[in-house]
Amino acid sequence: MYIVSYDIESNRRRTKFSKFLKKFGRRIQYSIFEIRNSSRVLKNIMTEVEMVYEPHFTNSDSILIMQLCEGCKGKVKRYGYAANEEEEVVIFE
Q1: Which value, to the nearest 10 degrees, does the dihedral of the CA atoms of residues 85, 20, 57, 47 take?
Q2: DSSP 3-state of 2
Q3: Which among 20, 35, 49, 60 would be 20 to 30 A from 42, CA to CA?
Q4: Residue environment code for 17-39, b if the CB has 16+ CB neighbours within 10 A, otherwise e
Q5: What is the pTM assigned to this prediction?
Q6: What is the distance between the alpha carbons of residues 27 and 49, in angstroms, rounded to a whole number?
Q7: What CATH number labels 2-85?
């Protein structure tokens, strides 16, 4: 699973990027998407970022892509409405 977070100053580019990410995953917060797919999908996202968005970055724009590994299971704690979106129940000791 991958987490993609973005902070893009331009309303137009931010909206376009959000619509692009909706093709691959689901929004879990305003500018954070959860992508549950293969490394091929990740490569497509990274190529799009590098070719379309990064050339237009200002000093305040950023996109973060983070991988959550299978061995990290149980390391994500959800609160509020996000807790209801998780299918598995994780108990912390």
Answers
A1: 110
A2: strand
A3: 60
A4: beebbeebbeebeebbbbbeeee
A5: 0.76
A6: 18
A7: 3.30.70.240
74: phi > 0 → left, psi -120 to 50 → alpha, else beta; which?
Answer: left
Whole-number Cα distances in Å, 88 to 27, 40, 81, 83, 91: 18, 25, 15, 10, 10
Q: How many CB atoms lie within 10 A of CB 57?
A: 15
Looking at residue 1, its amino acid is M
**Do the bridges between strand 62-67 and strand 2-7 make them parallel or antiparallel, or are there none, so unpaired?**
antiparallel
Token digits for 54? 């990064």
Q: How far apart are CA 65 and CA 45, in angstroms?
A: 9
How many C-beta atoms lie closer than 10 Å to residue 14's C-beta? 16
Let me know how long the chain is.
Answer: 93
